[in-house]
Amino acid sequence: MGSFQLEDFAAGWIGGAASVIVGHPLDTVKTRLQAGTNYGSTLSCIRTVYRRESVFGFFKGMSFPLASIAVYNSVVFGVFSNTQRFLSQHHARESEASRSRTLSDLLLASMVAGVVSVSLGTPVDLIKIRLQMQTQPFQEGNLGLKPRAVALGVQPVYQGAVHCIATIVRTEGLAGMYRGVGAMLLRDVPGYCLYFIPYVFLNDWITPEACAGPSPWAVWLAGGLAGAISWGTATPMDVVKSRLQADGVYLNKYKGILDCISQSYRKEGLKVFFRGITVNTVRGFPMSAAMFLGYELSLQALRGDHTVTSP
């Protein structure tokens, strides 16, 4: 089946929605640790968010990613699968059912998916982070306000996703929606290489040769491990991206990627670039496991297959 296949996009949409629901609470903790202040450790951050904002604080800003990341992952998975399929057939002249996939085909398909993901994902991440960072600790740490002054005098800048988009476009122009795009490009292109390639090879390694395709358990495990690897290694540039995108909620501190790296290193040392690596890695497993399992099972249902088929 060498033709362009829309099923990959539909399955990616379902997988994306599943991953947002599973991963958003820890994504909020990750963002607060990386771009906020006065949170301390991961457990301290969780306790602080819960104490100040209740359980709903962990789901702050989820509506926009739920609506948009599903579409975003639909495009990413659709682009990767169709690109990989095209390259595999063009270079090796092998059928889609063949399990022999060259590393170069997977690498190029992952890079293409990464570039496409940045064009769609930068505005999504920007809105999500801006909404997540409207918190008392962020205001206290970055504006030097006392808690009482924050509680009484500083109102949230954004009333929701639509208001956030309108405010950014009005104050920063359309280019403002792509704040942090360079850092996201440096995070996502290698990040997707370390996402799809481990997934494919782990799937092949876990699945016995006698089986026509990987089992749901194999998909869950391979997807989770791939997500942990990808998110863990992406943490340094994820820190820079989060800081650049959170910058501008109340004030502007950074002039660009290099300035953000320089200021962060000067004030907090090398360890700042690994802030949130634990929560990133832990969060990466269930998010990616849900993503790939949702994708594969949806693709199986859409195609009427009885075995799971890797992207």
UniProtKB/TrEMBL annotation:
Keyword Transmembrane: yes
GO cellular component, one term: mitochondrial inner membrane
Keyword Calcium (UniProt): no
Family: Belongs to the mitochondrial carrier (TC 2.A.29) family.
Annotated keywords: Membrane, Mitochondrion, Mitochondrion inner membrane, Repeat, Transmembrane, Transmembrane helix, Transport
Pfam families: Mito_carr
Matching InterPro entries: MCP, MCP_dom_sf, MCP_transmembrane, Mitochondrial_Carrier
SUPFAM superfamilies to which the protein is assigned, alphabetical: Mitochondrial carrier
Gene3D superfamilies hit by this protein: Mitochondrial carrier domain
Membrane topology: Multi-pass membrane protein
Name of the protein in its database record: Solute carrier family 25 member 48
Bilayer-crossing regions: none
Signal peptide range: none
Solcar repeat positions: 3-86, 101-205, 214-301
Record's subcellular location: Mitochondrion inner membrane
GO MF annotation terms: transmembrane transporter activity
Predominant cellular place of this UniProt entry's protein: mitochondrion
